[in-house]
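If your schedule permits, I should be very grateful for your opinion on a structural question. I have a record of one protein: its chain in single-letter code and its fold written as C-alpha cells. Kindly check, if you would, that the fold set down in the C-alpha cells agrees with what the sequence suggests. I remain grateful for any guidance, and I place the record below:

***
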Amino acid sequence: MPKIEYYVGEALVGEGVNLAHIDLVIGSKNGPIGISFANAIGTPSKGHGGLLAGIRPNLLTRPYAIIVPKVTVAKMDDANKIFGPAQAAVAKGIADAVEEGIIPMNKIDDWLIIATVYIHPEATDYRKIYQYNYGATKLAIQRAIRGYPPIEKIFYDKDRAKHPVAGIRVPRLWRPPYIQVALDHPALEKQMKVVNQLPKSDRILLEVGTPFLKKYGVESIKKIREIAKDKFIVADLKTLDVGKLEVDFAFDATADAVVASGLASTASLDKFILEAQRLGIHAFVDTMEVTNPIEKLSSLMQTPDVVIIHRAIDVEQSTEGDQSPDAKQRQRWALIPKIKELYADKKKLSGRDRVLVAVAGGIEPSTAAYALEQGADILIVGRFIASAKDVEFAMRRMLSVLPGYQDINLKRIHSEDDDDTVKKATWD
C-alpha cells in the first residue's frame, strides 16, 4: 500500500484589509486529505462552499486543490473576490511551486491540496488580493514541505512574539535574570508614579505587594495594569489557605503570577500551584520563615514556577549576635544552588530551567552580584527603587548589574522571517 503523506503549512502576507492568510494541507489522495477533499466538494456549507483552484476558467492547477473561504461569503462582492483574484492567485501559486521544484513533479497525481483563504469583507484592491494570496500560497506550500517551523524556532519565538491581530502581549518568564520591583507602600498614587518612571524593558517585573493588596484589594492590580499593559505583574498574596479562591481573584484582576507562603500546608500549596497553572499564570512559593525550604519543596506534588528565598524586612532591619545582615543574607542565598539541584531533572526540553529562583531582602547593586553568582533568576527590589528620588536612575543602576542586559522593544511585532539560524544553544 502506498505511503500516506500529510503536510501542513500556513502563511500570512500583506497588511491592512487586503492581507492574505492561507492555511493548507497537502497529502495523499488515498488518505484523510482525499476524503476531506471529496467531502468539501460534495457537501458544501452555506457561505463557505469550496471551489477548485483554477488558473482561469476551464484550466485547473495540479495537484488539484480546493479553496475554502474562511470568512462567510454573504454577497456577490465577497464571491467575486474569492472566484476572481483569490482563486487565480492560489492556482498560480501552486503551479509555480511545481515548476520551481517546491512540489515534486512525481507527486502531482498523488497529492491533493485543501487551502482555506481569508478575504476581509472590506478588501477592495484586487491586485493586492491577488499578489498577497499568491505569495502566501507559495510560502505556505514551501513551509509545509520543509516541515517549517522547527521546534527550536517555536521555543525561541513563542515568548518573544506579539500577535498582530490579538493586539495584546501576555509576558512569560523566558529570559532571566529579571528585576522585580516590589510595590509595597500602601499608597496607590505613589506606586503608580513609580511605575510611570520606570524605563522600558522586558527585564522589569512588577510586584503588587502584600500591604498594597491589603489596603486596596486585588482590584488595585487592574489600576497598575492600566498604566503597564504589557508588564508581568505579580500579586504577592502570601496565601496560607483556600489558595484556589485567591488565585481566581488575582487572575480575574489580570495578575500574571501569584505568591503563596511556604508556611502553608503542603495540600494548600499543591492546590494553589495547580490552580495557577490551570489558568495559565505563574505560581510563586515564598519560603520566608520556612525552616527547611528544601524539605518543604520536596514534599510538594506540584512543581512551582518560582521559589522565593526571602529575608523579611523586620529581620533585615535587626541584627542578632555577631553576624552582620550581609552575612545572614549570603547564608540564606546559599540555598539557590540547592533549589536548582532539587529541580535539575525538571528542565524544559529547550534547556531552560523549569523552576526559577528569586531572592528578596535588602537587594541593591552592591548585593545583587552575589545573588546572581549563586544563580538567582529574579532580584526582588523594594525600597532601593520604589523609594528612590530618581526611580529611573535607580532602576538603571540595578539593570546594569544584569549580565547581557539590553533594553527590549516592547512594541515589536514578529510576523515571520523564516529564520533557520535559531539553534538550541541560542535562546538569548
